Amino acid sequence: MDTGDFRAWVRESSRLITEQAGELTELDAAIGDGDHGINLRRGFQAAVEMLDDAEANTPGTVLTTVGRGLISKTGGASGPLYGTAFRQAGKSLGDVTDVDAARLGGALEAAFNGIQQLGAAREGDKTILDALGPAVTAYQVAVEKGGDLAAATRAAAEAADRGRHETGPMLARKGRASYLGERSIGHEDPGATSTALILNALATVAAGEAS
Amino acid sequence: MDTGDFRAWVRESSRLITEQAGELTELDAAIGDGDHGINLRRGFQAAVEMLDDAEANTPGTVLTTVGRGLISKTGGASGPLYGTAFRQAGKSLGDVTDVDAARLGGALEAAFNGIQQLGAAREGDKTILDALGPAVTAYQVAVEKGGDLAAATRAAAEAADRGRHETGPMLARKGRASYLGERSIGHEDPGATSTALILNALATVAAGEAS
Amino acid sequence: MKKLINAPDGVLTDALIGFAAAYPDLTVNLEDRYISRGPTAGKVGLVSGGGSGHEPLHGGFVGYGMLDAACPGEIFTSPVPDQLLAATNAVDGGNGVLHIVKNYTGDVLNFQMAAELAGDDGTPVETVLVNDDVAVENSTYTAGRRGTGGTVFVEKIVGAAAERGADLAAAAAVGREVNERSRSFGVALSANVIPATGKPGFELGDTEIELGVGIHGEPGRQRGPITTAREIAGFALDAIHADMPLSGDVMVMVNGLGGTPLIELYVVYAAVAEWLEGHGATITRNLVGNYITSLEMAGCSITVARMTPDLTELWDFPVQTPALRWGR
Amino acid sequence: MKKLINAPDGVLTDALIGFAAAYPDLTVNLEDRYISRGPTAGKVGLVSGGGSGHEPLHGGFVGYGMLDAACPGEIFTSPVPDQLLAATNAVDGGNGVLHIVKNYTGDVLNFQMAAELAGDDGTPVETVLVNDDVAVENSTYTAGRRGTGGTVFVEKIVGAAAERGADLAAAAAVGREVNERSRSFGVALSANVIPATGKPGFELGDTEIELGVGIHGEPGRQRGPITTAREIAGFALDAIHADMPLSGDVMVMVNGLGGTPLIELYVVYAAVAEWLEGHGATITRNLVGNYITSLEMAGCSITVARMTPDLTELWDFPVQTPALRWGR
Ligand SMILES: Nc1ncnc2c1ncn2[C@@H]1O[C@H](COP(=O)(O)OP(=O)(O)O)[C@@H](O)[C@H]1O
Ligand SMILES: Nc1ncnc2c1ncn2[C@@H]1O[C@H](COP(=O)(O)OP(=O)(O)O)[C@@H](O)[C@H]1O
Ligand SMILES: [Mg+2]
Ligand SMILES: [Mg+2]
Ligand SMILES: [Mg+2]
Ligand SMILES: [Mg+2]
């Protein structure tokens, strides 16, 4: 994936999140404060604008720019978390201009670690990590099995989708949803859902389906 | 009517008003502020209590005591108006102990004048006066035709009922209902309605039906 | 009906007990139902009152630089002469007592009776009638304009004048001047619920607002669909401007009716400031918040007063009450 | 949804424009989104912030004796690090800046990032985390107790300490002490409506209340049927008392959540005073009104702080902000 592909990923993520903002917000209304879609839409749209203005000419700078944009404009818990994820992912890419499957795997892992360190959640706590963790694992398994970048991102997206659905029966232990205790059970986590969208955007771009 | 009859009138008025407080309040909710029944119930119940405690041993003092009680406890526009009416009626009776039909007619007229002077309304303004005015007239006509006190109070009560119904199509020009302008049309006036109740109580007592 | 009360008919008593506990510097006479700060020798006493449900008005405005006593009636029901008389006597500092009365038939009649009784007792009483609500047109065919937001301005400014030694006639004159220079217009987005009835005082559709509503939920000039804060403020200010042309120095109050978030009042204030600037008027003083409410009604009222340097000086005079406090 | 706004996504900007017009003594930076009173040389700067919709918190508490700057996020959404950093720099008087942060994941993370950035720039930043809401039990299994009413006490008292010359460490220590001594419990009678979604944040039945609600409408401990103010206050105080036994001198705030009439808050205050007296505690200071709201939510929160003479002295220190004002 080159710089243009990474820009396309961000645009596609923004498009999907804008399209699904209502759903994300509704999920957040059920177990949070009903702003997740609004937050991310604002954040991603700002990130896309910043990207259009910025001279980000490596995949790494594309991602760190997006990360800065998300931190600057999203607010909420998800802003710093996703912002940090993109920044860490971007940093892990250094200044390579063409990202292969292995490097992208490293970037996804860096994203996971960034969120994990900042938010101090663990898998199973009903958060972003419950979509991102399985995605990173599935990605690496696919690569190890000889899959190319398109196949690996597709595997990651599918694992994220499954992971997101699996947050339904979980009891939230981080973020606003944790205040619900038992009542958080039965609702899918909005952050895990948005993560699945972002990874689906990645798979779409990797498959060359969007621009 | 002797002192006991006047006490009975007040008690019967209080009973009727308490019973119909909901209706009075609903009428007031439509074109006023929805408290007429509550106001009058509070006022009349207090007046009855004051009367129970007071050594009112003439019809006149019964009525002035009630008037003072209504003024003290009712609040709203109706408190001073009805209070003044009872006080003026009581004063007009002097210290006679047995009130005949003619004297009672004078008392009703004094009540009308008291309200008219204090509130500066005219008949047709959609107020208490639109029940009380026709009642006073009907009473006097009945007496002139030789009717006794029971017949005259019955005529007054019936005229008050008619008068009250006739406030429906009137446009309010006094009190809170006046703010409605044209929109006050089509609703019967709460004050005219409570006046009809008080005059019905009088007719009941005069007929010896209540105690 | 869901309300934080113990029983519908005990609301006022319970509230007065709470008020007394919260403001130990003030006197709450539960028997006679008034809130006061005791008489100040030589000063004209200021008494206001009216139905409850408009808090902080009037009890929240008792204190240095403002009222001497407030008489709360039952919710939305004017106080009775007895309590007005008791309060009048309690704050009579020997130089007479000024009654500040919002123009509603009930308030007017009850205050009038109290003034007569006080006069019989030898206490000179003057009355300032507040009737600032421009929503009521053709006021000759009605009980007259209602007293609303202008009351806050009158009470504050007369309070300062009395504190500075104005005699009864002078205090009354200042009050009348403020009233004449003040105009209000209210807008309701939802109805209030009187505890005693437990039902909304009026019905509004899901997207309907009442333009020109009174502080008891009295009807306004018209109903309309909900629109922007800017248009609503414009409608209100146009109505005020048509009645009293706005220019020069003005004081503005954007008042919440009880159920509207403060952030919305800031939005309205922005629109009001924009409108007034566009019409060449200068806002020299302002209040934004809940000062004269209508229970939990959602909506706001806008009050504008044309100021003079003297009135501004009186406005700036120190005040120390539960709801208004500065300069000391 | 009926609201006094121009457009759902412009509420914060419009409100800030209105706020700026209403309080010309304060600075409103629309670009960077903060309200400030400029740096006071030598004084520790106090910055707070959080999602909007809780007005007057925090912008209404900027001024002498309280905050130096407030950073409003979008409605119910924490502010972003950029604005927190800009505000931190704006009020840095050379002796460091204290961040007062309500304990919500979003607020904590965004403030943390801003503090790191400020630290990189050489500005020492300390953080006081407010987490006073006892509705959240088993806080080790959650994001922790939420910060609610105690924030008002912390901001006022730290504000006084900073004004009197406390250094950064001392100001932080006072803030933490106030937080440790404060506990809150909220009760919702109706839900709020976020303008951006236009729908109630949660659903309550016609006779249902949420006991232990958060200031964003977060769920409480349980739902129950509407009951008397006395029982509701008792439930809240029992919860507080179980967590922090109440005795001796206490300060109490009965806070309206935005849609509750002030007269009801007086009724609740009466019940709170009765309960505390019955438990041998003495209310030495109080606030009754809307201080930390949740848009138009009906209901109230009760905050109690166990006081010391030093804290009381700091509470009494002059304050001059839009929403809290005394002694000067
Ligand atoms: N500590 C955490 N670690 C990872 N993800 C978290 C954490 N806390 C919250 N989240 C995620 O953030 C999402 C909520 O984001 P958002 O609604 O934008 O922020 P807020 O909760 O501040 O309103 C949750 O659904 C959850 O997935
Ligand atoms: N000026 C007046 N003269 C006679 N009756 C009046 C006048 N003003 C109001 N009323 C009567 O008072 C009634 C309302 O009484 P009430 O609801 O108790 O008082 P309020 O209007 O103060 O709430 C009206 O229905 C009307 O009949
Ligand atoms: Mg959220
Ligand atoms: Mg009425
Ligand atoms: Mg009334
Ligand atoms: Mg949020």
From TrEMBL, chains A, B:
<dbReference type="GO" id="GO:0004371">
    <property type="term" value="F:glycerone kinase activity"/>
</dbReference>
<dbReference type="InterPro" id="IPR004007">
    <property type="entry name" value="DhaL_dom"/>
</dbReference>
<dbReference type="GO" id="GO:0019563">
    <property type="term" value="P:glycerol catabolic process"/>
</dbReference>
<dbReference type="Pfam" id="PF02734">
    <property type="entry name" value="Dak2"/>
</dbReference>
<dbReference type="GO" id="GO:0005829">
    <property type="term" value="C:cytosol"/>
</dbReference>
<protein>
    <submittedName>
        <fullName>Dihydroxyacetone kinase DhaL subunit</fullName>
    </submittedName>
</protein>
<keyword id="KW-0808">Transferase</keyword>
<dbReference type="InterPro" id="IPR012737">
    <property type="entry name" value="DhaK_L_YcgS"/>
</dbReference>
<dbReference type="InterPro" id="IPR036117">
    <property type="entry name" value="DhaL_dom_sf"/>
</dbReference>
<feature type="domain" description="DhaL">
    <location>
        <begin position="4"/>
        <end position="204"/>
    </location>
</feature>
<dbReference type="InterPro" id="IPR050861">
    <property type="entry name" value="Dihydroxyacetone_Kinase"/>
</dbReference>
<keyword id="KW-0418">Kinase</keyword>
UniProtKB/TrEMBL annotation, chains C, D:
<dbReference type="InterPro" id="IPR004006">
    <property type="entry name" value="DhaK_dom"/>
</dbReference>
<dbReference type="InterPro" id="IPR050861">
    <property type="entry name" value="Dihydroxyacetone_Kinase"/>
</dbReference>
<dbReference type="GO" id="GO:0004371">
    <property type="term" value="F:glycerone kinase activity"/>
</dbReference>
<keyword id="KW-0418">Kinase</keyword>
<dbReference type="Pfam" id="PF02733">
    <property type="entry name" value="Dak1"/>
</dbReference>
<protein>
    <submittedName>
        <fullName>Dihydroxyacetone kinase DhaK subunit</fullName>
    </submittedName>
</protein>
<dbReference type="InterPro" id="IPR012736">
    <property type="entry name" value="DhaK_1"/>
</dbReference>
<dbReference type="GO" id="GO:0019563">
    <property type="term" value="P:glycerol catabolic process"/>
</dbReference>
<dbReference type="GO" id="GO:0005829">
    <property type="term" value="C:cytosol"/>
</dbReference>
<keyword id="KW-0808">Transferase</keyword>
<feature type="domain" description="DhaK">
    <location>
        <begin position="7"/>
        <end position="326"/>
    </location>
</feature>
